[in-house]
Amino acid sequence: MQLRVVTDQPWDVPADVLAVPIVGEPKFDGVLAELDKRVGGELAALTSFGELKGDRYSTVVAAAGELRAGRLLAVTAGEAETISRQVVVRIGSAVERRLAGRTVRSLAIWIGDLGAHVDGGAAVVAELLARGVVEGEFEPATIYRDDYKGAPPALEELILVAPGADAAALRRAAERGVIIGEGANLARRLANRAANDVTPEVLAGEARALAERYGLSIDVVEPARAVELGMGMFLAVGAGSDNPPRMIVLRSGAEGEKDAAGRRLALVGKGVCFDSGGISIKPAAAMEEMKMDKTGACTVIAAITTVARLAPGTPLLAIAPAVENMPGPHSARPGDIVKAMNGKTVDIINTDAEGRLILGDAMCYAEKLGATHLVDVATLTGAVGRALGDQMTGAFGTPQAWYDDVAAAGERAGERYWQLPMIEEYRKDLDSFYADFTNTGSAEGGLVKSALFLREFATVPWVHLDIAGTAYFSKKTPYAPAGATGVSHATLVELALAGASKTA
Ligand code: BES
Ligand code: MN
Ligand code: ZN
Fold first, then answer.
1. Percent of the chain with pLDDT over 90
2. Which neighbouring-strand residues pair with 234?
3. Half-sphere exposure of 91 toward its Cβ, with a 13 Å CA cutoff?
4. Ligand 1 lining (C-beta closer than 6 Å)
5. Domains of the chain: residue spans and CATH
6. Neighbour-count burial for 136-175, b at 16+ CB within 10 Å, e otherwise
7. Residue range 303-344, pLDDT digits in tens
8. Residues 258, 315 contacting (CB under 8 angstroms)
């Protein structure tokens, strides 16, 4: 896709479609009045007919009249004071998705006064709109079929229309947005692929191909070496499947190198290629969704790739423990006692609480490789989805200053997190007669306990992002299809780039 920033008035821009965001209740003054006049009053007429009402991301397509574009697409942006970075991304996606199944080669989007509502102004809006359009192109229905007709158009050209702006600055920003959007889509595509397609070994192969392409170092730890390293929790989860586990380690920068912020940041992502629950098997309803239980791994693999594109050589680690959680003759059983890489013993009382087991060893390994700061991202608990739904990711962290750094990266990325407490009193619910602790307690406060468990494996600043609610949508929205959302990819990229000494 070619990117262009033009400073012409929107009616002077030739394109197949010109998209126009409308802030607040449609008021036809200024540029909007001129646009409406040039489409023969159709925009105002459609509005009074009842289009563009209510929610944001509602769209209407009108004939182009005297515009140089082929069609006009209006999209509601919501009330001015509620416009956020996330809203701007989603406007871009909603525009692109509204054109699904249509033949559109060039899309122009008028930035309008969105810049007035977002800190960072027009350049940030250009970045976020471009990212949104690219994310809007993602269509999981095309992964396994080539006859699908309803996909959003593969654009040849995206034109951002910003009269009076610094075109070069906006273009650079938009290019960054395209790369971040492509990274999110890489994560989404991997996450959406089926478990009979993406086994731990296949995921490692995908990581290898990306490493080669983007100049990352890669090391894939196979079971024999995991035994030597003492990754007893990781191995116990992987043991139930014929598809052996892989601990995927990607690195940019030199071994042991610190980034410009003085950190050696490691991103750790849960890679359960299928979570049947193991011997503590899950009920059949919606079990197929558990092919997405590798989303955290896909996200960290994509994030380090994106960072390599935007700021090559930035010191960064991405660690993805990849397993299949299956019942079988070699599976871990409830009551099995295993030893983690840090020497702690764990009483596995529920084999379905497997994510924390593989993450614990991966976090220890990250520290062994010199990580000074950890962020893990995982589809860890059903409870987080029940608590926060699919719009807000639950997060934990310690110390608070590190949590705040991650939250600030989330703000820059236009993603939403809600910090949850690590309630000390609940730790004793993980006490075990046989081992240092169990992997689950009673269900009450289970979300908090999952974080208390993970905390046992961090000795450096650590943040845990539980994306089980936000990683995929069960229903489509105007801005995204059902399936993987790419959530937290942009946050991790922003966080890592805070340690980049130079960006490309
Ligand atoms: N992968 C699941 C969590 C999950 C549930 C993700 C629903 C997405 C949608 C995780 O491994 C799991 O099974 N968690 C259990 C933990 C329990 C056994 C303590 C859960 O949440 O029920
Ligand atoms: Mn599970
Ligand atoms: Zn799981």
1. 98
2. none
3. 29
4. 275, 293, 350, 352-355, 379-383, 385, 440, 446, 468
5. 2-185 (3.40.220.10), 193-497 (3.40.630.10)
6. bbbbbeebeeeeeeebbbebeebbbbbeebeeeebbbbbb
7. 999 999 999 999 999 999 999 999 999 999 999 999 999 999
8. yes
Is the pLDDT assigned to residue 54 strictly greater than 70?
A: no
**pLDDT confidence tier of residue 211, bands split at 50, 70 and 90:** very high
Tell me how far the alpha carbon of residue 409 lies from the centroid of ligand 1, in angstroms.
27
- H/E run at residue 492: helix 489-497
In three-state form (DSSP H/G/I as H, E/B as E, the rest C), the secondary structure along 123-143 is HHHHHHHHHHHHHHCCCHHHC
Report how far ligand 2's centroid is from the alpha carbon of 424 (Å). Answer: 24
Residue 352 to residue 269: CA distance in whole angstroms: 17
Q: Which tokens hold the place of 172? A: 């650079």
Sign of CA dihedral 493, 159, 82, 57: negative
In the block, residue with structure tokens 């520290």: 367
Quick one: pLDDT at residue 264?
A: 98
- Quote the CA–CA distance of 292 and 340 in Å, as a whole number: 25
Ligand nearest to the CA of 484: 1
Ligand nearest to the CA of 467: 1
Distance between Cα 352 and ligand 3 center (Å): 7
Say if residues 324 and 195 touch (Cβ distance below 8 Å).
Answer: yes
Q: Count the neighbouring beta carbons within 10 Å of the beta carbon of residue 214.
A: 16
Report the atom number in ligand 1 closest to the C-alpha of 282. 13
Which amino acid residue places its CA nearest to atom 22 of ligand 1?
Answer: 382
- CA 180 – CA 160 distance, rounded (Å): 17
56 with 1: CB under 8 angstroms?
no
CA 328/CA 334 separation, integer angstroms:
13
Place 55 in a pLDDT band, splitting at 50, 70 and 90. Answer: confident
Look at ligand 1, atom 14, and give the residue with the nearest C-alpha: 381
DSSP 6-38: E-S-GGG---SEEEEEEESS----HHHHHHHHH
pTM for the structure as a whole: 0.98
